[in-house]
Design goal:
Shape: globular
Number of helices: 17
Strand order of the largest sheet: 1-2
Order of helices and strands: HHHHHHHHHHHHHHHEEHH
Length: 437
């Protein structure tokens, strides 16, 4: 059955639903969008969805938010792209702002830690479930499974940088597509006519010029009013740079962000970055919303000439602006070329290999998250090819393990919704965290 075009009002309702329910990181968010737009409503066909997903993996920034923007653009042009992209971010940004305010007021309180004990355990189950779903769709051939395994080993065991893993997947996929396309389950390109290239160039140039001005606007205002020595300038400049190089999502950028925010700028104290990531894991929307937490704290602690509250709000808003404005720019500038690029067999193979590699990356991130949720201590351990962090078994948090197992059981056996699960896990965290403190 071919995809059907919805009304803009109907699409808005679904965009808002996705934005409010997109917990659990990019794996579960992409799975949610696939269910809503491909499986249930058939507004986007499977091949186009996966091709756009492959393309978004190559862009800097949160791939799930960019995929949502592309879906909106595909259905209703620029207004649809803005609507889908903004509604994917706004619910989580509002929650993250509230949690940031709560963090500065309640950090260190027992009930606060207990609440997030349950939430993080539930999110672990959600991430694992989503990983299995994505792997089931993306890994269709032995070669794709081998690429995913190699990607996992390269990052988890060898600590190779994510861009290098992507480059290796791109080159291998391109070569395989030219010689053995069946090894990547490639299908022939669609025969539908393409729009004129002149129109695609016009749209791309307009997006680059308009998007660039929108991206730069707050920085120009800050330079004119507060000067380049103000903390807001530092926040905007740093996160603008991060937005341009953050391939692989929030986790890929987390190490660099922590080094700069803690070591160079002194915005956060050691350990607070992990707290921010934990907050981002519990909110809907992209995990890169952890940047909003960093921007909020940086401005809160260096507030002059504003009050801490006003400065924190400005810092959070500026961080969101310079983090997500580029995402719209990338999609609106490049989306007109996605269908045209789909005709290139070598590129299709390269993107198919990248998709398989991303499964390995998500598996590694799931393992990383599991270790940090379930164990209180990890120790660096040398081995033949480098150093890896291994858990201290005696530091197992039985409360987190119990809540994670119960969450996984509920997810896989009873298929409960994410919001009820998170509410129940929060209650369980409070009960176990306070009862066995």
């Amino acid at each position: 059955m071919p995809p059907t075009a919805p009304s803009f009002a109907a699409a808005l309702r679904v965009y808002a639903r996705v934005g409010c329910l997109s917990f659990g990181g990019p794996a579960s968010q992409i799975a949610l969008m696939h269910r809503e737009f491909v499986d249930e409503r058939r507004w986007v066909d499977e091949a186009s969805f996966l091709h756009a997903l492959n393309f978004c993996h190559l862009l800097p920034g949160p791939e799930a938010q960019q995929l949502a923007t592309w879906i909106g653009w595909r259905l209703h042009g620029l207004k649809g792209g803005f609507a889908a992209g903004l509604l994917f971010v706004i619910p989580g940004a509002l929650v993250m702002l509230g949690l940031s305010l709560l963090y500065v007021a309640a950090a260190g309180l027992d009930w606060f830690a207990a609440l997030f004990l349950g939430i993080k355990a539930a999110v672990l189950g959600i991430v694992v479930q989503a990983l299995l779903r994505i792997a089931g769709r993306a890994l269709r051939t032995p070669l794709q499974r081998a690429i995913a395994a190699a990607s996992f080993a390269a990052i988890a065991l060898l600590a190779l940088p994510f861009p290098l893993v992507v480059l290796a997947a791109l080159l291998s996929g391109y070569a395989v597509a030219r010689a053995r396309p069946e090894w990547l389950a490639l299908t022939p390109a669609p025969a539908a006519p393409l729009p004129p290239a002149r129109e695609a160039w016009r749209q791309s140039l307009a997006a680059i010029v308009g998007g660039g001005l929108i991206w730069a606007a707050p920085m120009l205002l800050i330079a004119a009013t507060l000067g380049r020595g103000h903390v807001l300038w530092d926040i905007g400049a740093f996160f603008s740079q991060l937005a341009a190089v953050s391939f692989g999502g929030a986790y890929a950028a987390l190490t660099y962000m922590a080094q700069e925010a803690v070591g160079h700028f002194g915005w956060l104290r050691p350990g607070e970055m992990a707290d921010g990531l934990g907050l981002a894991e519990t909110t809907p929307g992209p995990l890169v919303l952890v940047t909003q937490f960093v921007g909020f704290l940086a401005a809160w602690r260096d507030a002059a000439p504003f009050t801490p509250l006003v400065a924190g709000l400005l810092g959070a808003g500026l961080t969101l602006w310079v983090t997500f404005a580029p995402c719209f720019l990338w999609i609106f500038a490049l989306a007109p070329w996605i269908d045209r690029l789909e005709r290139a067999a070598g590129l299709k193979g390269a993107l198919a290999a990248v998709t398989a590699a991303i499964v390995g990356v998500i598996a590694n991130l799931s393992l990383w998250f599991a270790l940090h949720v379930l164990f209180r201590r990890l120790v660096p351990t040398d081995w033949a090819l480098g150093t890896i962090d291994l858990p201290v078994l005696a530091s197992l948090d039985w409360r987190a393990a119990l809540l994670a197992l119960l969450s996984a059981l509920v997810l896989f056996r009873f298929r409960i919704g994410m919001v009820p699960l998170l509410l129940a896990a929060s209650a369980g965290g409070l009960l176990l965290g306070l009862g066995f403190a």
